[in-house]
Amino acid sequence: MFRDILEGEVLPKVLVVDDDKGVLDTLRIILTEAGHNVVTTPDPVYALNIIELERPDVVVEDIRMPEMDGIELLRRIKSRWPKLPVVIITAFSTWENAVQAMRLGAFDYIKKPFDINQLRVVVARAAAAYDALKAGRKPFFEVGQIVGASEGMKTVLDVVERVAPTDTTVLILGESGTGKELVARAIHMKSLRYSEPFIAVNCAAFPETLLESELFGYKKGAFTGATSDKAGLFEVAHKGTLFLDEVAEIPLPTQAKLLRAIEEREFYRLGDTSPRQVDVRLIAATKQPLEERVREGTFREDLFYRLNVIPITIPPLRERRSDIPLLAGHFLRKYAKQMGKDIEDFEPAAIEKLMSHSWPGNVRELENAIQRAVAFCNTKKITKDDIFITAEPLETKTPPIPENFNLDAYIEEVDRSFVEAALRQAGGSVQEAAKLLGISVRALRYRISKYRL
Fold first, then answer.
1. Rounded distance between C-alpha atoms, residue 183 and residue 178, angstroms
2. Are 286 and 247 in contact (CB under 8 A)?
3. What is the pLDDT of residues 384-437, one digit of tens each?
4. CATH classification at residue 239
5. In angstroms, what CA-CA distances link 208 with 163, 276, 388?
6. Final residue before a domain boundary, out of 134, 159, 191
7. How far apart are CA 176 and CA 394, in angstroms?
8. What is the pTM assigned to this prediction?
9. Element holding 430 (H helix, E strand)
10. Domain residues for 408?
């Protein structure tokens, strides 16, 4: 499938390093038939000289060799040729070393006994990515949904750039609303799978009995109500990316099947006796501390290590406050265009109000606030009065409660003021005011009657 990439060009040169002559000969035959110019050596020390002289496009190396192990060879390659893609061949017993290799910058890994098609695909992707880098172009698309200039987000985006062209499993960590799915989509769009499906599933949204059939599908008659065969999301995502959000919520029995799908690249539909092969890049995400779940016994340790090959932690918005004006501007342009409004910017007081808030709901909460502000705004600039924030701002202290304070009366007064403001901004339209307040028309009519507005 990748011969089209190479048509009309000089054959990509692949250096294979393995102390096993039988493996060297096998890899040379497979990769030569796949359209590569193959150079082999059993000596990892001599391999460095070959790289210097031959300038290969890809290095394929075993992780265990007597004179110099694959980790040390990888370190030396990356110190001298940091952009040269290195593909690691690993056995199950050396899995931890494979994870270490990925973190040191390996392009991808292939597990022994290796699948010939997987080998061809991984090496072809590595060659295509390196060719694009040498030509001064990126081997992926730019994705404009992730906005930020803080050091925390620069780190996130740097990891995205590095891991996207590989097929490495990624675990995205972060609080609710930080943009975990956006990062997963960015990885997909910057990968060579960008033209294939991106399938996202929220594992917390399904009952335990339903999640397994949703992921793996089922055969007709597998259970009551299974009147026909159904493909699961692993099959739907074939050749593409499967994003498992809230992966910590997967029940233990389903975790075991997920582990098999990752390790063996195959799975069984419910009620089926024949395994199905699958080629999927897996990205997982969670807001939960998975290490604690492992200690508690509610999450499998072996699955945790398979998912946590490349962890990406997205900092909460309160820890990257310099991104708030950039994000606010991004959402302003987005929703002004959607609503057909000519709004140019924020007034300084509006930005100050945004900067003073703690944003416990993170980017999602900020986006909702800007969307509502755009709906309220009737001028060229958003004012602080257009921005409704319900939670406490940063570094504020609750004032002393005065004598004869009545909490119900205070809440009622705040409620009334919001209703009045919404009706005023909506020009008296009950439906528009209800949308601005995020309540039903019926609930708003009740308040109008209650407050005699």
1. 10
2. yes
3. 999 988 755 444 445 567 767 787 777 888 888 888 888 888 888 888 888 888
4. 3.40.50.300
5. 32, 22, 38
6. 134
7. 19
8. 0.59
9. helix 430-437
10. 400-453
